[in-house]
Amino acid sequence: MDLGIKGKRALVCASSKGLGRGCAEALAAEGVSLVMNARGAEALEATAQAIRDAHGVEVITVAADITTEEGRAEVLEAAGQVDILVTNAGGPPPGMWPDWTRDDFIKALDANMLTPIALMQATLPGMMERGWGRVVNITSQSVKSPIGVLGLSNSARTGLTGFVAGTARQVCDKGVIINNLLPGIHDTDRAKSLDTGVSEQQGISIDEAKAQRCATIPVHRYGTRDEFGATCAFLCSQHVGFMVGQNILLDGGALPYTL
After folding, report:
1. Rounded Cα distance, 30 and 6, in Å
2. Whether residue 184 has pLDDT greater than 90
3. What are phi and psi of 127, to 5 degrees?
4. Number of other residues whose CB lies within 10 A of the CB of residue 241
């Protein structure tokens, strides 16, 4: 299938590894030039060079903290005219409801709600003027089914989902399509960190912790960054003009919902 996005330009946040990298690689495979962002310069440039070598597309790297005003300004200046925006940022730390302060919530909102909103506010006008654009926000399965120990993430990402629900319907008649991708557990550094925590808490090996978690997923495995990236690329394609403000769950069937 021709996704119809060859020659477009994409800004992909937090893309040196994990799900962000999967999205960047899938878009590059379709002939999309990239502006890639992450905080760590070394890992970011290594990933960018691998993508250049594999797909022959232009890749600009900006090592900056996208969750800060200064970082966003640096990234947006380097990005210039953007046709595709993929927002992504690491989630806040786990905890329990009595432990979180107002500052904890503000930090979570800055990273997982206000940063994607600011990036959309910066890029949507140009997309609307040109009559074409795609935005994919990487959120979480917790938007549909909250995870108790991830209350900071639940709150911030649900707020972003509400913003997108309204905004997507205000810009779609200008050819700009916004949707959200909701990952469940994927084989990334985040999953390794979670499995390590379970391993230490329960006194079992990391492999046993992973197997324990896999048993709760109907497909009995973790997702891969490649299949996540392929879904993202489709949501950035010419074929989604009638898909507006949707929340696409990629969790291996873990959430047993009818709708």
Report:
1. 6
2. yes
3. -60, -45
4. 13
Whether 99 and 149 have beta carbons less than 8 Å apart is answered as no
Closest to 75 measured CA to CA, from 84, 66, 85: 66
pLDDT in tens, 98-142: 999 999 999 999 999 999 999 999 999 999 999 999 999 999 999
Contact 42, 36 (CB under 8 A): no
Check whether 209 has a pLDDT greater than 90. Answer: yes
CA 32-248-37 angle, to 5 degrees, is 40
| Alpha-carbon torsion angle 111, 28, 184, 124, nearest 10 | 40
Where does the pLDDT of residue 259 fall: very low under 50, low under 70, confident under 90, or very high at 90 and above?
Answer: confident
Give the whole-angstrom CA distance, residue 37 versus residue 29: 18
Structure tokens at 123: 């890029």
pLDDT given for residue 220 in this prediction:
98
Single out the residue of 156, 139, 125 nearest to residue 250, CA to CA: 139
CB contact set of 102 (below 8 Å; sequence gap of 6+)? none
